[in-house]
Amino acid sequence: MSARENATLVRTMVNAFLTGDLETVGTSFAPDAVWELPGRGRLAGEYKGPEAIIGFLASSFELSGGTLSLELMDVLSSETGAAHLQLVTADHAGRHLECVEVLVHEIVDSKIVHTYHRPDAYAIDAFFG
């Protein structure tokens, strides 16, 4: 795919998450896609396949008491993938989260095959536990 097409795929996936369209989120990923989230908290780990990735994203929203929000700051892309920067915020149970995250996506045949999610792991672990 072209760099422009890869950027469009990532923007579409992020916008679908923001509007709660998890079906579109799922179709952005290859059947064997992997999403990596480092850390030691309850959300840290590797999620394999679109269903597990959607489950992780839904859990993060639920665990934030429905307050999880993100602002897409930028998308950088090439012919082999795309990276996006996002500002994530949430407020729940007396805790506040605000951090900038970098997500790098490997893309093959118009599908995301691997996502390397690199947040402020300390902030994520402190907020989500």
Structural overview:
The protein is 34% helix and 43% strand. It has 129 residues and is an alpha+beta fold. The termini are far apart.
Give the percentage of residues in beta strands: 35-45%
Structural class: alpha+beta
The CATH topology assignment is Nuclear Transport Factor 2, Chain: A
Task: Report the span from N to C terminus.
Answer: 38 Å
Order of helices and strands: HHEEHEEEEH
| Count of DSSP strands | 6
Percentage of helical residues?
Answer: 25-40%
State the low-pLDDT regions, or none.
none
Placed side by side, the strands forming the largest sheet appear as: 2-1-6-5-4-3
- Gross morphology is globular
Largest sheet: 6 strands, mixed
Number of helices: 4
| CATH architecture term | Roll
Query: What's the CATH class, please?
Result: Alpha Beta
pLDDT averaged over residues: 96
| Whole-number total of structural domains | 1
